[in-house]
Amino acid sequence: MESFDSLFKKQNTGQVILFILFIIYLLAGYKTPELLARGIDTIIGKIVVVVFAILLFCKCNPILGVLGFVVAYVLIRRSEMKTGTYALEKYMPTEEKKASNLTAFNQFPYTLEQEMVSKMAPIEHTVHEPSSFVPLLDNTHDALPV
Fold this sequence. Notes:
The chain has a domain at 2-91. It is 64% helix and 0% strand. It is mainly α. Helix 4 runs antiparallel to helix 5 (62-83). It has helices spanning 2-7, 13-28, 34-40, 43-59, 62-83, 85-91, 95-105, 112-119. It has 8 helices and no strands.
């Protein structure tokens, strides 16, 4: 309770204003602008947002720091929603899922054709004697042999 009382002291008016802005952002559900969302929805943008939340937690009131982490998470999530990467991660199947679906679709029952082929006698390969004739080429008209 002491940290909550220290938040409302006269010298912490900036923190109180930031606390109120964070609460308004969370409760009102403002959408992130497209340009800002594209910047935040990168690895560097996410790192910058998390670093600001950590700095806010270290330098300000602990309640404001925890609220800063919540706002950072919500900001990153709303940016992903705006740019569409959230939907890609959640709904697009991975290669493993696609491969498992394909193997499930390619399971066929043992057919009559397979049964008949397995019952057939194996084909014997006989060695043929060399033939007595020699093939002759006709005039090829300067064509190359294949």
